[in-house]
Amino acid sequence: MQPMIALLACIALSACAGTDSLQLSNGGGKSFSVSGRSYAQIWQAATLAMSNDMVIVESHRPSGVIKSRVVNGTPGKVVGFFIQPTDESAPRYTVTIVSRKPLQTQFVDRDWEPSVVEDFKQALYGKRDVE
After folding, report:
1. Where do the structural domains in the chain lie, given as residue ranges?
2. Which of 38, 72, 83, 131 is most buried when burial is the number of CB atoms within 10 A of its CB?
3. Which fold has domain 17-125?
């Protein structure tokens, strides 16, 4: 009986997607450019977007990384927000948003969180229809 309980506990723990699996280098997610804004403005908008229906679990401004766990929606889903470059006065920034669902494999990592993009645009530009 105890081996069965241990097996079920391992399966339950592995079902949660971890924020460590959120990496910019894996080629997944949704990327777009932002110009005409400072790094501070982009960071502030990203922080607001990553707090909407999510809990920020990692935030590192010097590297341009924010990672959150979804609290309203798919249980165990995690979202990463990556800003490059992190220079305060760059003429253009690339923003990439990557999300992972529980039990999602590396090869299926094409899922991103469209609501984060919309929340980010709302916080940065004051409207949702900006491309």
Report:
1. 17-125
2. 83
3. TATA-Binding Protein (3.30.310)
